[in-house]
Structures are given as C-alpha cells and as structure tokens.
Amino acid sequence: MKLSLAYNALTLLAWSASVATAFVSVPPMVDHKSSATMSPPSTHTALFAVSALVRKAKEAELRNYIQEHGIDDEIKVYCQKIQEALKADPSVVKVEEVAGPLQERLTRRKGTLTVIAEFKRKLFDSGYVKPEDFVPELLSSEFREFGAQGIAVLADERMGGCTYDDLAMFAEEQRRSKMEVPGPVPVINSDVIVDEFQIARTKAAGAAAVVLNLDLLGVDDLKKMLTAARALELEAIVAVSSKEEAQQAIDLGARMISVVNVPGAEAKTEIVSGLTIPEGATVTKIANILHRADKGLGEVEEAWECRDKGFNCAWVSDALYKSGNSASEHPGAIIKSMSAKSSVRWASPVAKSGRGEGAREYLGDILM
C-alpha cells in the first residue's frame, strides 16, 4: 500500500507504508496448577492481526499529521536525502562494518550485559504510569546515571503514550550532559515505523537510532528503511522473533538484532544461536525482556540468564515501572541490577551486599 505525502513546494513523493511494530509484547501464559510457563497459542497470528490494525491507525495518523502541520524545512531536507539514497539503488543495502556509537556502547566484553531502558507512559497491560512518579526530564538523567547504555522512547501515542516531542526532549537532555560524567546516552526511537517520513522525523528530533521490525516490514521494505536510516546516519536495531528472521536481518546488513515477543532466555537463545555472520562483522544481540505480571523481579534474573547465554544487551520496558515499595524496584535499581555481573545461581536481584548482588562481579574484578 502506498502512502502519498504532499509537500508544499516539492514534487509529490510516494512513500512505501507497510506493517511495522517495534515491541508489541505478548506475555507468556502460566499454568497456575503446575506453575509452568507456556507459550501463547498462535502468537504469530495474534501479532499479525494486531499489527494490521496498528498499521491502519499509523497511516491515518501520518496523513492527519501532515495535513494539520505540514512538513518543516529541516524534515524536507532529510526526506530529499532519503529519496536520493533510494534512487541510487534501492535493492542494495550499504553495509558499514565499522560499529556505530550506539553499537559500540551496547557491545562490551563477553560476560557483560548492557541495558537499553525504554520510556513510555502507557504500559502493555496496566494503563498509564503515574506522571508524578516518573517525570521524563528526571528519568532521562536517572537512566544515564544508573548505567543505561541506550535510552528508547516509544514515540507512539496509542501504544506508548509518547510523542516526538518526548523523543526530542530526551535527546536534548542527553545532549546537555556532554560535559558531565557519565556523558550523553544515545536515544532510540521505538515508534511504530511504517514510513521513511518517520525516519526523517527521528533525525530531526535528535535521536541516534530507530527500531525496525522485519516480520512486519518484510524484506523489501526493511531494505528501504535500512537505506533511509543510513542516509541520515542513524543506526538501526532490527527486531526479529525467529532464527530465520535473525539470519535474514544479518544478510540484509543489520548489525544489531533484538529478539522480541519471545518469553524466556532459552527460547531467545535458540533464535540467535548458529547464525552465519560475515567475516569481520560484529552482530550485537539484544534480548527484549518481557514484563511479568508478578510483583517480583524475575525480569532481572532472565536478563542475567540471557547474558550468560551470549546476549550483549537487555531491552527493558514495562518492568521499569512496577513501582513497588522496595528501593530495588526503582527504575535505576533495576537497570543497575540487570547490568551487574551477578550469578544467576547465587545472587538475588533485590540483594544489596554479601552473597547476593555483586558476588560474581567481585570475583570477576579479582580475576582481571
């Protein structure tokens, strides 16, 4: 389906609009009699049905936005750059084997897990976060100070309750920390990307990267989106939910892949194991940690398991906003716990000293 975007003083440009959802989480089902975790039935079918509705809503939203606000000069320039890149050869994706700033931050030595913290106002299954508890301006600095190596903003009002103004605010707050320690953290747009116009808006907002979903974009449109992102010097994280998709993404030139909509460390590991990676290339593996409805911090332990199985980074979203009474459930504490080199066997995500949190990290420091 083609989504035509009219410009005031420019020739009418045709944009490809296709299905794309960044991180639609389908929580695992639990057999309460046996306490066993089960995969939800027909997950792919359910996601496709949801994404079809999301696509229609997003296309309508883009049309309305352009009709009401037009397109400012900066975004027009970025749109022209994208079109020039696509005209050069839209079937070929230029692959840069040198890691970008975001990928470098997310990829540390073996046994080390980095964290991407996602900001959103609307949670998957529990309504909106309390604005007085999670102020965006404060969270931006807290995410940085507690060790997040990437900050995502779900700039979709229907799914995340956020806008591109929020994306720009996070990018600006990080930019202002340039002379501080720790310094700025790259900001990622995890909007439902269905059109290159959104990639141009991402650049204008000051973000450093976008999320693209292979299952929902398809191979041809993913090529276009990757080309568009590279034309504007944006890094791209490609979301996958199967081994086949992971290999396709790598073959298309993706160098950061995120496993989404897959519950459990074992299932996530199956998807990224045994992939064929081009010689000299580094592929950063990101585990999207699904929110759990319980009041515990099982998400932290799952992140540790993913680290031990070879993942480089954990993407955490709804779990940051559990808002428990314990200090260990503060967003910053969750980020710090996930990135700690704690032992899955011996550590507790809520422990602060002794045999629990940090035990393995201390041993690692001794051995270095």
Automatic annotation (TrEMBL):
User: Per the database record, which ranges form the Indole-3-glycerol phosphate synthase domain?
Assistant: 93-261
Q: Which residues form the signal peptide?
A: 1-21
Quote the Pfam families the UniProt record gives: IGPS
Keywords, ordered alphabetically: Amino-acid biosynthesis, Aromatic amino acid biosynthesis, Decarboxylase, Lyase, Signal, Tryptophan biosynthesis
Q: Coiled coil: which residue ranges?
A: none
InterPro entries in UniProt:
Indole-3-glycerol_P_synth, Indole-3-glycerol_P_synth_dom
Q: Which GO terms describe its molecular function?
A: indole-3-glycerol-phosphate synthase activity; phosphoribosylanthranilate isomerase activity
What pathway is this protein said to act in by its record? Amino-acid biosynthesis
Q: Which is a GO BP term held by this UniProt record? A: L-tryptophan biosynthetic process
* Lineage: superkingdom: Eukaryota
Specify the protein name: Indole-3-glycerol phosphate synthase
This chain's source organism reads Nitzschia inconspicua
